[in-house]
Write a structure and sequence with these properties.
Layout (H helix, E strand, L loop, with lengths): L1 H56 L2 H10 L21
Length: 90
């Protein structure tokens, strides 16, 4: 009888340790998931900021200003503009 009690106690102890280990592992995975989700949100914010920055740098007004000031470019006079018709089928 004492042997049976010892076996049952060892089984109960193994079950308890298994439950504790499972809970610890689950908590660790939830923490890792939350950290990954936060990183994903941070990357989404950074992506939005980069898109805004790209649209600012590519604005036509900014490019035209840089062309005039840094490159000394200016629009062509009306007599310098030549229109070319596209070939049929294009």
């Amino acid at each position: 009888m004492a042997r049976l009690n010892l076996v049952l106690i060892l089984i109960a102890l193994a079950c308890a340790l298994s439950a504790v280990t499972g809970n610890h592992r689950a908590r660790k995975l939830v923490t890792e998931l939350e950290a990954t989700q936060k990183h994903m949100r941070d990357l989404d914010v950074e992506w939005g900021q980069l898109q805004l920055e790209q649209s600012t740098w590519a604005a036509h007004v900014r490019i035209e200003k840089a062309a005039r000031e840094k490159l000394g470019m200016k629009p062509p006079a009306p007599g310098q503009i030549i229109s070319v018709a596209a070939a049929p089928g294009q």
